[in-house]
Design goal:
Blueprint (H helix, E strand, L loop, with lengths): L8 E5 L12 E8 L2 E6 L3 E5 H4 L13 E4 L3 E10 L9 E4 L2 E4 L2 H8 L9 E11 L2 H7 L3 E4 L3 H6 L2 H10 L16
Parallel strand pairs: 5-9
Antiparallel strand pairs: 1-2, 1-10, 2-3, 3-9, 4-5, 6-8, 6-9, 7-8
Amino acid sequence: MQANSLAPTLLLAMPQMTDPNFARSVVLLCRHEAEGAMGLVVNRPTDTLASSVVLLDPPAQRDSGLLAWVGGPVEQQRGWLLLGYDPRTPEAMAVGHGLYLSASADVLRLLIEGRADGRTDHRFFFGYAGWGAGQLESELTASAWLTVDVTRALVFETPGERMWEAAIRSLGIDPYALQMTGGVH
């Protein structure tokens, strides 16, 4: 990660963000480099079971009820695991603040089968949010996003539908007092 990287941080969409992929979104910025940036929208759960959108071979022996979350509009056929612990697998990538990204089928199997030792600090996402070189910086300059420090409690314990408001309030800001003009539409 570069010294001037914003990652890891949470990006909070300003109210004027009208793109349906990002309206009222909370994005965990996982990578931020000169070539671009990558993150996961962490406040969009679905009612879809992860087991119904992934093909494990052999099939899972049981289903823990792990839900799939929409991680963003890019490559929605691709799955990601966000973990609040190190899964100790070679493909796991440290994001920061004790958070790890993985695409390991073995780790996913453990989570789907409910063999995560009682842990609840994990999410399965499909898709991700991506920005080309300079794109995120332009959006930040246009006041499209607020930034807030990553907290595990916000990411793993706050219900998706309340996360955006809770994150903005953590800055001491009333989300309903935010200006509704300018920014990226």
